[in-house]
Amino acid sequence: MKPAGPMQDICRILLVDDHKLLMEGVRSLLAPYAHLRVTGMARSGSEAVALAASLTPHIVIMDLTMPGMNGVEASRAILQALPRTRILIYTGHEDQRFLPELMELGIMGHVRKSEAPEVLLKAIESLRRNEIFLTCPDPGGCLSAMLRARLEAHDEHAVDISVLSPREKEIFRLLADGKSIKVIAQHLFISPKTVESHKYNLLTKLKAESVGDLVKIAIRHGMLQV
């Protein structure tokens, strides 16, 4: 199977499953594809959340049943911090007990482990193209339509950091890194009042309410590692 579509950039993938052998199998499956790079593997939901924050993966392939924090809880935490991350549920559950909650969270893919490996590859390529992929029953495409509407609603409220000037981006990084107004002013040889003015402009342009929101936006856009 060759990668489909025009997207040829490296796709960072985080694998999450409490069965290490299964993750090794998936990593071997993806190894021949240079554009698919497994950057981390987590064996629990809590480990997945921590790794996602530091690795900022494009796609998370998530198991559901794990000790401690399960896949639903981990998906929620990851999407709250990194809403642009695409979650692909990879589960051995044949029943759909978690499906309504997962749909509400905004997952983009659902593949059962009983499917052929080629199905998982197809799902990954679909998510890379920002397309929904479900192997669970979806009469009339209702689930896909609901997920697409949710994603489109999110996109309408997404922030665009390209609207920032070079100086604003510089101050944005420093604020997100925890630097105080006084320290930033000294570092850039400008007045604290000027820094305050830039901070106000940043909050307005990025639709943020606090410096904490700026930190989240910086992480989402790969401008800050935690």
Give a description of the structure.
The chain has helices spanning 20-30, 45-55, 71-81, 99-105, 117-128, 142-156, 166-176, 181-188, 192-205, 211-220, and strands at 11-16, 36-42, 59-62, 86-91, 109-112, 133-134. Helix 8 (181-188) packs across helix 9. It is 49% helix and 13% strand. The radius of gyration is 20 Å and the shape is elongated. The chain is built from ten helices and six strands. Helix 5 links the parallel strand 5 and strand 6. The protein is an alpha/beta fold and 226 residues long. The chain has a six-stranded parallel sheet with strand order 2-1-3-4-5-6, sandwiched between helices.
List descriptors.
226 residues; elongated; 13% strand; 49% helix; six-stranded parallel β-sheet; single chain; disordered N terminus; alpha/beta; 10 helices; 6 strands
Short description:
49% of the residues lie in helices and 13% in strands.
- The global form is elongated
Question: How far is it from the N-terminal to the C-terminal residue, by CA?
Answer: 35 Å
Largest sheet: 6 strands, parallel
Structural Rg: 20 Å
Mean pLDDT: 84
**Care to count the β-strands?**
6
Helices and strands: which structural class?
A: alpha/beta
Q: Helix segment count?
A: 10
Query: Can you give the helix content as a percent range?
Result: 40-55%
Q: Hey, roughly how much beta strand do the residues contain?
A: 5-15%
Q: What is the chain-wise order of helices and strands?
A: EHEHEHEHEHEHHHHH
Largest sheet, spatial ordering of strands: 2-1-3-4-5-6
Unreliable spans: 1-8
Regarding quaternary structure, how should these chains be classified?
A: single chain
